[in-house]
Amino acid sequence: MVTGSLKALIFDVDGTLADTESVHMAAFNHAFAEMGMDWVWTEAMYIELLEISGGKERILHYWRQVNPDIKEMDAHALQDRINHIHEIKTAAYENTINTGVVKLRPGVLELMDQALAAGLQLAIATTTSPVNIAALLRRAVGDNWRQHFSAIGDASTAPLKKPHPQVYLQMLDALQLPASQCLAFEDSANGLRAATAAGLATVITPNPFTAHHNFEGALRVVPDLSQVTLGQLVGWQNDQTV
Fold first, then answer.
1. Is 210 helix (H, G, I), strand (E, B) or coil?
2. What is the pTM of this model?
3. Cis peptide before 130, with omega less than 30 degrees from 0?
4. Residue in 12, 19, 154, 187 annotated catalytic
5. Is 154 a residue of the active site?
6. Is the torsion defined by CA of 122, 126, 128, 129 positive or negative?
7. Tens digit of pLDDT for each residue in 149-194?
8. What angle do CA 189, 192, 195 make, to 5 degrees?
């Protein structure tokens, strides 16, 4: 297949590769219960909280909402507590993923296979943790999942969360490609802003947690990737450069 100037596909993880947000929400609530906290995040609350990228950042944001006096706590002690909550949450999330109840979204694997067969590179640009990525893709792709990706950017490598473009800029540098030769795949407004700020044309596949977002500036907004081929991506990319 002739792919023209398209050389790489860069994927977000949560909500893009798989509908994981409800699993994350349940894992947060499990952690709160384990810690003896009376917090319970509902779906409506979590949709709003997803405006904050990063699990630890989300916890801190909510804590400041429900406890305005949080600043009176020792900063180090507060961060330790948030880290502990997040550790419990991450373990709960991984346990759920390992049961196999979460599948990749329609068309994701097929598009990745087409890209690899055509000689394109694949990369991941996410704000989630390395453990979460590995849990999801190990289950979905197999133990050798890592070899399919030329580069991976995550919460451990990019401390500046989306909508900051840091993780995408890191991936372009790792791939040694200009943004004009890559396409990004996202599901949220923050993700779109991060990708476009790095100069990347972006395909959006919304999910129930992000369907209300403003996706102005996206290359395309499609329900999922089940009807998207590599040939179509090349055509979309060519259309925007004409």
1. coil
2. 0.93
3. no
4. 12
5. no
6. positive
7. 999 999 999 999 999 999 999 999 999 999 999 999 999 999 999 9
8. 150
